[in-house]
Design goal:
Layout: E1 3-4, H1 10-13, E2 22-27, E3 33-39, E4 55-60, H2 70-79, E5 84-88, H3 106-119, E6 124-130, H4 132-143, E7 150-154, H5 166-176, H6 178-187, H7 204-207, E8 216-221, H8 230-239, E9 243-248, H9 254-257, H10 260-273
Parallel strand pairs: 4-5, 4-6, 6-7, 7-8, 8-9
Antiparallel strand pairs: 1-2, 2-3, 3-5
Helix pairs in contact: 2-10, 3-4, 5-6
Organism: Streptomyces coeruleofuscus
GO molecular function, one term: hydrolase activity
Family: Belongs to the AB hydrolase superfamily. FUS2 hydrolase family.
């Protein structure tokens, strides 16, 4: 169960749209506080419709991101043209509590954000994750069935422990070495847990077959410097005919590489698929 320090008004729970931005700390099922922001989106201001009529996008950022980072706010603004948006900082990132487990316990952070979106009156929820967040929304949909109505994973890895590119070798240094964790804490405001995974969590490619029948979109750039195109192709193969793959020409990695046009296409896809 996720608990919010700001509870919606009684009118909101009956479907009245929330018309102002909200910011609060959510509490995950394992007791971590998560900094979260709700943007009602331009669509919700139609007084003739309730918040239940419009989807809400729950955005899961990449590693070292946070709710106030400019690239996360840009994604939120782009998706707000299609519905409400919930953004949040993963554990160990920004003002959230706890320490990052780099994709494992972060599933509980997404679950808390999705629950808050439902509490605010939205009947349709789409999760949109980038890089680490892309792997987390896949695992969330597999481990918490029926919590979401559509899933979009952008620039996600297919498998764990990948070190085949220079950026990923640097990232592994940050995560696994004490001096790397110091750099991450003070240079990127990201606090990383020192313990190794035990047990190793379900990998993204193992999670994908469990997502059906929830609609799934996999988005990846063919110029991604972190994860080459065999990663999205593995995910798409695991999804079979239950998923859709967009391999974007010239696109790099995650939020910074996602154009406003691409984000608009993602927004349209979620609106069409989320029921």
């Amino acid at each position: 169960m996720a608990r919010s320090t700001v509870r919606p008004h009684s009118e909101t729970t009956r479907g009245t749209p929330v018309r102002t931005q909200l910011r609060t700390f959510l509490r995950t099922s394992d007791g971590v506080t998560i900094d979260a922001v709700y943007d009602p989106g331009a669509v919700v201001y139609d007084a003739s419709r309730t918040s239940a009529d419009h989807p809400v996008f729950v955005v899961a950022h990449g590693f070292t991101g946070a709710v106030d980072r400019p690239h996360v706010r840009r994604v939120a603004r782009a998706l707000a043209r299609f519905g409400a948006v919930v953004t949040f900082s993963f554990r160990g990132h920004g003002a959230s509590g706890g320490r990052s487990t780099v994709g494992d316990r972060e599933v509980l952070d997404v679950a808390a954000a999705v629950r808050w979106a439902r509490e605010l009156g939205h009947a349709r929820v789409g999760t949109v994750g980038f890089s680490m967040g892309g792997s987390v929304v896949l695992r969330h949909a597999a481990l918490h069935p029926r919590q979401t109505d559509a899933v979009v994973s952008v620039s996600a890895p297919a498998r764990w422990y990948y070190r085949g590119t220079a950026p990923m070798r640097r990232l592994h240094w940050l995560v696994t070495r004490p001096e790397g964790r110091v750099v991450s804490r003070y240079g990127f405001r990201t606090r990383i847990h020192h313990r190794d995974w035990d047990p190793v969590p379900l990998s993204p490619v193992e999670a994908v077959p469990r997502i059906a029948p929830t609609p799934l979109l996999i988005v990846h750039g063919d110029a991604d410097g972190y994860f080459p195109v065999d990663h999205p192709r593995m995910l798409a193969a695991a999804a079979a005919d239950q998923g859709e793959l967009w391999l974007e020409p010239g696109m790099g990695h995650a939020e910074n590489a996602a154009s406003d046009a691409l984000l608009g296409r993602i927004g349209e896809w979620v609106v069409a698929r989320a029921g």
